[in-house]
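Objective 1.3, modelling of assemblies. Example input:
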Amino acid sequence: MNENIYIAILLSSIATYLCRVTGVIFSKKLSVDSNFFNWIECISMGIIISVISKIIFFPEGILLESTINSRVTTILVLLIIFFISKKNILFSLILSTIFFILVNKLDTNLLYF
Amino acid sequence: MFSNFFIKGFRDACGIPLIGLGLSMFTFGVYLKSSEFNLIQSFLSTFFAFALPGQFIMVESLISGANLLNIFFAVLFTNARLLPMTMNIIPTFKDKKINKISYYIICHFIAVTAWVNYLAIYKKVSINNRYYYFVGLSATLWIGSVLFTILGFLLSSLFSHEILIGLVFFNPMYFLLMTIRNLINLKLKMVFFLSILLTPLLYMILNDWGIIISGLVSGSISYFIFRKKKYE
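Predicted structure (tokens):
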């Protein structure tokens, strides 16, 4: 297992770097004024939103122990606070994180009740 | 002076971006400890394979007994999003004065947090200074991530499980708000709504491929609809 961990880290590093370096190679002749760049901008934005959406609806790791109700409710609360507070990011994040911890605890307790 | 912009990038990173990413890396460090990694392995993981979703996949695959080839391809597909993100960033600061080899070094720092923060500000920075700004911002986030992973590994017993779950959710919420702040025109707003709707459906059918395809489809539809329209 121990030796495998080092090899796994090496292979993961190569795989991750490969994704980035391919991006550098493909962007060699890419101009910010080109249509292709605009298309890439839209796709990048789409993929990032997909990643966020996936974390909310189908999380992995430790977040699997939270309920879907608590995650979705927290996102709604986050958006409400964000727009009410005139887009104050830090304030919205702190309040929503506290809300998430509380509602997740409550929700989990209700599930086991 | 370029160094001023490097420092500006550093300063911009040392706030909510580093807190958000750091909290996720901290819990990743906790996860590594519970997965029987040692301190050096935890350090190497974030130092060389810096991209959290891929790092999680690596550990989970190892624990579940996947072979090394499977781990390689699982990480490759999970991190495929880095390709268009790199293509979206590098052309914004291309400058003949910059040694081309340096692009192959700094691309290692490209990840979601650096990407969303850089996109929010790069148009306000002159082209000649964007490179230095980006290096200051992204390298700080990378070094911070390594430190937070180690801290998480060392201090794993100090936090309750409920608090850790809450801290992990801080970063996706932060990504969401930063993304919303970057929706400066109708085209990007359409990408946002299409992707939010498509991702759960495609993920249930195609798993991780659903994420890439959802981004590709929603981005392409919006691009072709607004290609010739004035939407700003």
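Chain B has two domains: 2-169, 185-232.
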